[in-house]
Amino acid sequence: MKRLFIGSGFSLLVLVTSAQKPQQDTLGSATLEACVQYALKHYPLVQQALLDEQITDRQIKSKLADWYPQLNLNANYQNNFQLPSVAFNGATVHSGTYNTSTVGLALTQNIFTRDVLIALKTKGDVMTNIRQQTVSDKIDVTVNVSKAFYDVLLTKKQIDVLNDDIVRLERNYKDAYNQYRGGLVDKTDYKRATITLNNSKAELRTNEEALKAKYQVLKQLMGYTGADSIRLVYDSARMESEVFIDTLQTLDYSKRIEYQQLMTEKRLQQADVKYQKWAYIPTVTAGAGYNLNYLNSRFGPLYNNNFPNSYAGLQVAFPIFQGTKRQQNIRIAELQLTRIDWDIINLQTTISTQYAQALAVYKSNLNNYYVLRENRDLARDVFNTIDLQYRSGVKAYLELITAETDLRTAESNYSDALYQALSSKLDVQKALGTITY
Prior knowledge:
This protein is α+β, with helices and mostly antiparallel strands.
């Protein structure tokens, strides 16, 4: 029973310890959507933006707390080594006691103060502003992760093309070597096959090393810290169907998050103009207090008796002249508001330029995609024909190598064109403000 008790306790300890260990999120197989969602949950920049929202919300509540009554407790004790002297009827006498102590409660209530009023008026726009920054960060993360995803797929596709190419080249190498050993051809074909095969293997090794680095870039953009590798899942047919976008869409500035941020900033600046003008309105505060006063020449009986006093009042503070400081602050706020109007105009022209450039690049890449897709199909047909003719003894080995090189180049170029078109589509969507996450 003792061994059973000890064993059960040890097992319970292990279970509790395991439960307390943080679970590391892993992503074994991932589509593009899964990678984006993982990044939105784990990327440090996004998490910091969400924390900034919470911080701003707490700051607003802290400002608004000044509207509530403020109750303070104050206590003090003072020992006078020498009593103060006063003149009375031509003689100097000492006044007061050697020991004094006061315990008091003070209550204040803001009736009007522009600092708290501006916090109340702008709390909605302040939260909107910080949330818009989070949206902007999420859009950037979505675009960056998507492009990194496409970059990894492109390199993987190039590796697949090279692997297929190496299989064909090894077969050609064996055929050329056997023909050379059989005396049917000279050693030129055999050496050419060796050179071509070695070049493809070297290119394959380069792409394999590049793939590791691109995987690491994707993990970094996703905020992925797991030790397990990510296996990307994608549908080639679906990706080819998603390469298209409506190029006749009308540009709407209000859809861009940058434009929305400027409009929010403008509203906040308009509130600041009002805030500066409110400097001409007096600050009004109500207050009340209750104090317990203890006076005695000896410390021992000091707290036996108290002499309370209480009060209530209203305080109005109004600066009469500040050397035109208030006027200058109002003018500064108005000029800053005008500056934001120019920022809006500049942003509109920038967005128009971005859209025009992104659309031009997309159309160019889409045209390349069409052309290179046709080239891939043609190169495949040419290679199959020449390969058959070579094995029938009609074509020379040099023509087979040329057809093989053309096919590999065409397949690689086609894959590059596809992913370039998909990446440029993201730029068009970002310029239009239609990125979804």
